[in-house]
Predict the structure.
Amino acid sequence: MGNFDGVHLGHQAVIDLARPHGPLGIVSFEPHPREYFAPDAPAFRLMNSETRANRLAKLGVEQLYQLPFDAQMASLTPEDFARDVLAEGLGVSHVVVGADFCFGKGRAGRAADLVALGQKYGFGVTVAPLVKFGATEISSTAIRTALAEGRPREAKEMLGHWHRIDGEVIHGEKRGRELGYPTANMSVNGLHLPRLGVYAVKLDVLTGPQAGSYLGASSIGVRPMFGVNKPNLETFIFDFSGDLYGHHLSIGLIDYLRPELKFDGLPALLDQMARDCTQAREILNAL
């Protein structure tokens, strides 16, 4: 049980401890409680709900319960939550949480409180120790920092997988197609943004007749060349042709190539895009 933002190695340690106790399920919340309490704060999530569900499925999770976090949920005391939600609502037999787990109104409940409440209401509780990366405890915060500084490989060491952005391909302004580099456009709304710029990526087309794994180069940013200010994710897929509108992609960030730049005309932009693709291919082919 937890928010599982990023599904990092600490989260995976919690999941592994839960495996022997029966059918494996995750209890999480949607929206993230921080989004409920501070809806106007900067976006912080590493994963949207789709990416989280896809990653948990790959780890063998059989059931995902995304509890609606609303005023009613926020008002529950720790004991209310343990009794009404876990024992009577979900009928859990055993719960595994991280050592830093908090629950209930005002985050008043701690992992030790959940142990005592489990004894009272008939379910077992295991508290997983925190996992470290070197001298640093693995956390979503540390991963956000690595990504914001353009270090996706360091983020991978803490995640246990490449950082991914999943979502539906949406219509853009189709400039890439006109330039000879058609891109799949995806929204990054609600997500903590990695460092803006160009990345070498591995990607999966998750739905449709062209489902499969591919390589490519992605740009995350505001497209300063064209004066667009809303960030998005655009991916040029190597050796691919086809219509992906409405289908879902999963983009894995491998290496940061360069920051966003504003060029003196389209020829300079096209030259740089060609260099980006060459560099990305070299990096990806070496993996």
